[in-house]
Amino acid sequence: MATMTVWRFDDAAGAARAQAALTELQQEGLIRVLDAAIVEWEPSRKKPKTHQLHDLTGAGAMSGAFWGMLFGLIFFVPLLGMAVGAATGALTGSLSDVGIDDDFIRRTRDAVTPGTSALFLLSQEAVIDKVAERVPRDGELIHTSLDQEEEQALRDVFLAE
Fold first, then answer.
1. Which of 8, 28, 35, 98 is a good FRET partner for 67, with 20 to 30 A between their CA atoms?
2. What is the DSSP string of 75-132?
């Protein structure tokens, strides 16, 4: 079973610190990273900077379209207004079919704000207690677990480019 997690940090560099810990955990076989991305939001910026972590991911990584769409729903749709927001209703409905629902989007949007950062992670086979010990302590975990059927549906939607 895959798990989509979001680790939120109290500063714009926190996710980069978590990325370093995650790299070590993966090398030690304590987690299998399927895909990952970072959001860094400097306090002086109107919108966050986002990027996919290609160095951590394997052959099953999602396309950039997945991260772009997810980050668009979380961070940019609210800025575009109700007309564009209404047009995304069907899209958010299809994401709920794969374990990413309106509550996940809302909680993430509320938590990741200017001056913070976040590590978005799709992973498997995590040794939870070891991962929790090594992730920087200033992180707040928000997560949605995906079962195998939801994971495959997510891959089917986003792996095709």
1. 28
2. IIHHHH-HHHHHHTHHHHHHHHTTT--HHHHHHHHHHS-TT-EEEEEEEES--HHHHH
Predicted TM-score of the model (pTM): 0.75
pLDDT per residue as tens digits for the range 6-51: 889 999 989 988 888 888 989 999 988 888 889 999 999 988 888 8
Amino acid at 29: G
Backbone φ/ψ region at 82: left (φ over 0), alpha (ψ -120 to 50), beta: alpha
| Type of residue at 159 | L
